[in-house]
Give the backbone structure.
Amino acid sequence: MTLTLSPDLYFKALSDETRLRCMMLLYEKGQLCVCDLTRALALSQPKISRHLAQLRQLGLLLDKREGQWVYYQINPELPAWAMDILAATSQAVATQKTYQDDLQRLQIHQQGRENSCGAFF
């Protein structure tokens, strides 16, 4: 079953830089915990959690709890047009310094992850 999502809500959700950066990392990596996104974006946990909650409420993200950790992923039931936009956006931002820095910080964080948050996938 495909999620019903209006384009105006979708673009409004992605118009915020923090939400867009979260979505791009999740699109690129598949599933991440809050601590991954906090480190990658170099922002506070409450700010990241607030934005993730907004994306989840719109149906763009799914979450699951494993112990004390909450993991997020893009909802696989997003309409095809919405996934196409994520794919095109991911290609467009791939060369931008902000997104390259996010990926680099995420990689560094995940290398030491066993000491800072949940188990590896």
About this structure: The helical segments are 7-14, 17-29, 34-41, 45-57, 80-93, 97-111. Strands lie at 31-33, 61-66, 69-74.
